Amino acid sequence: MTVQVLAVLAVLSALAPLSMDIYTPSLPLIQKELGASEWLAQASITACLLGIGIGQLIWGPLSDRLGRRPVIIAGVIGWALASVLSALSTTPEMLVAVRGIAGLCGAAGIVVSRSIVRDLSPDTRSVASRIGILSLTTAFAPILAPVVGLVIAHAWGWRADFVALAALGGGISLVFAFVVPETLSPERRTGAGRGGVLGALAAAARDRELACVAIAIGAHAFGFYAYIATASFIVERQFGYPPVAFALVFATNAAAMLCANVVFRRIVRHRHPAFALGIGLAVSIVAGALLVATSSARGPEWLLWTASTLFAGAAGIVLPGAHSWGQTTRVASGAASALTGSAQFLGGVLGSPLTGMIGPTAANLGVIVLLSSSIGLCAWLVARRRVERPRIDPVDERGGTASADGTPRDDRHL
């Protein structure tokens, strides 16, 4: 795989998350112009998250049947058109609806990019390292998006944010068409008589190893998106700090995720992604326990900051660890990517509004992080036992074992 191909896949992985938050700095202006109330912010973000989660369940299995290129091109063009409609929105209901469509279409770039990585990688270590880069861009896009959106909106207005997204979609679709070849040959595609998309997803869900990995990342994402939705309220309302303090907290979180991603890529050079995922979930539990203990004892606020940084760093290991592990299972690549990807974003849909309902405090957030990460670790323990069982797959000529779609597996270094 060339650097150019990996760079294109990284951009494709960032499209849907980028569109989720690029317009958030302009929400007060959008609410005023469209005559919306406070519900617009949460509804538009939730619609996009829900679209990303559901979309991956559709595009992933389709790419196993139709090939990678037509699915990504169709999805990105749909995403660009949805961005144009967002710029033309005249009512809050229209904006929420087209943001959901944007998430649905943009999901193609996330889910199929991981499958292309698997198609072009010779072993588990290569898959994990490259997916680590894609996961990093997916996680960083929502962090960088508000800054970019603020600059664009300040110069040309909030509708220009969506025009910029549409231009990005059109440009990257053209680059993809010229740079990335079809990576799934016709003989490796799933047949049309296997129950369609639902049949492929059902078969993927019956793989207990993959199902447990999906539960692990979904549980962790529940806590992670609850943290993203709550952090600003804790910093600014509970403790009374100015917005610049929250920006500093988020900056350290972003740095922690970046460093953790580097650590992940080093780990998977010698160990199976399952090992890295277990480390990330364990650190998440420690972070949640530290949040609860510090809040209950009214400890120093720098400990809360430390706990949040630990949790963000753990996410930089958990997300690529789970997606990489999913790509090493016997399940067809697109369906496997769909299951882990949708679990991540649907977990976010459920987790992001929870703290708002029970109270956005550090103690409540700590309990959510502790419980969700513990559930994830339990699922990891079950899946880990299945990884450690001897494989009976035919050996591929490159030293790994062949998966269901012909992609080589490398089950050494567990």
Keywords:
15 helices; disordered C terminus; two-stranded antiparallel sheet; globular; mainly alpha; Growth Hormone, Chain: A; 2 strands
Written account of the structure:
The protein has 414 residues and is an all-alpha fold. It folds into 2 domains: 1-187, Growth Hormone, Chain: A (Up-down Bundle); 197-408 and 410-414, Up-down Bundle (Growth Hormone, Chain: A). 79% of the residues lie in helices and 1% in strands. It has helices spanning 3-21, 27-34, 39-66, 68-87, 92-120, 124-156, 159-179, 196-206, 208-238, 243-267, 273-296, 301-326, 333-351, 354-358, 362-387; strands spanning 401-402, 408-409. Strand 1 (401-402) and strand 2 form a beta hairpin. The longest helix is centred in the middle third of the chain and has 33 residues, at 124-156. It starts with a helix and ends in a 5-residue tail after the last strand. Mean pLDDT is 86; it is low at 390-414.
Topology at a glance:
Blueprint (H helix, E strand, L loop, with lengths): L2 H19 L5 H8 L4 H28 L1 H20 L4 H29 L3 H33 L2 H21 L16 H11 L1 H31 L4 H25 L5 H24 L4 H26 L6 H19 L2 H5 L3 H26 L13 E2 L5 E2 L5
Antiparallel strand pairs: 1-2
Low-confidence parts, pLDDT < 50 over ≥5 residues?
Answer: 390-414
Oligomer type = single chain
Strand content bin? under 5%
Question: What does the average pLDDT come to?
Answer: 86
Number of strand segments: 2
Distance from N terminus to C terminus (CA atoms, Å) equals 25 Å
Rg, nearest Å: 21 Å
How many strands, what sense, and barrel or not for the largest sheet? Answer: 2 strands, antiparallel
- Shape, principal axes of CA atoms: globular
Question: Could you please say which CATH topology of the largest domain applies here?
Answer: Growth Hormone, Chain: A
Number of helices: 15
